[in-house]
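B., you asked whether I could sanity-check this one before it goes into the benchmark set. Here's the sequence:
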Amino acid sequence: MSEATAYRRQSRWRHFVIQSAPLLLAETILALTLVAWLIFYYRQLDSLPTSFDWLTVLNTSMPLVFAAIGQSVVVLTRGLDLSIGGMISISVSLAATHMGASAGDMVLWTVLILLAGAAGGLLNGLLVAYARLQPILVTLATLSIYQGIAIKILPQPGGQIPEAYTNILTNPDEPTALVFIALVLGLWFVFRRVPFGVAIYALGNDEEAARANGIRVRRTKVAAYVVSGVFAAAAGLFLGATTTAGDATGGDVFVLTSIAAVVLGGVSFFGGRGSAVGSICGAFALTLVVNVLFFAHIDPLYQSFYQGLFLITAVVLGTLVGRLARGRT
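And here's what the prediction gave me:
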């Protein structure tokens, strides 16, 4: 084997290890969290989780899964979308107050709600890309605006999500949510290979270099926030299907948890590195952590402390793994 061939193979291996380390860590964290849940569940009930328990974990994770995917696309551009929580609240409020039980009505309002998410994302993108405002300031402001709109739509918790709609998205008897996970993974596979996906990663790696290579930076940023808005709206639909009713404050918790899932998933806040697959793992891990704390009999007053400790530990591990991958390859 020639030295040139050996060097090329070593370079490819180095690139693979560096790129895969965050995702492998996210998968490891998910696996360890799952094992911890199984152990504490067995100690508490002297049996393994039933199919109902598995479906409950799957269905309750879905809103965070979609919120985290939308957040991932924005973070890949070195941005941040705090308005996700407000858009989720608008989505679930609209669904609970307007969606009827007929098939036509469900399809119509699903499309309208997703378009509302796209419109909200478009506003964020225009302010960030064309007005050149900081993403954290823009999305913090629109978060408040969207929360106000949600409260206007649904002043107090109530309304109803059609049972048929719930059965399609988060059926309590069948793992229908897995179909949507598979669909999202397929879309992500395509996304990584189409010009838009390539532009997102290029923009996150080096904005000036991306512009020099003909990428329309501002349009790409706007599109990233539109995607985030659409996924936030979809997360609201899954939240409504899970709770079967509406709450104008239901999206508040996803402002920080969507970011936490992205962090656990290994998506770099410096942009250009990461995968929605990791964010999905992070979303499921965060859901399982809540169950672990419950079966471990942790006082609810201290659950936030342990969740924060878990997140910090994961971030530190991710940093160390990244440094080791660069140093040993």
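One thing to flag: The first helix runs from residue 3 to 45. Otherwise nothing jumped out at me.
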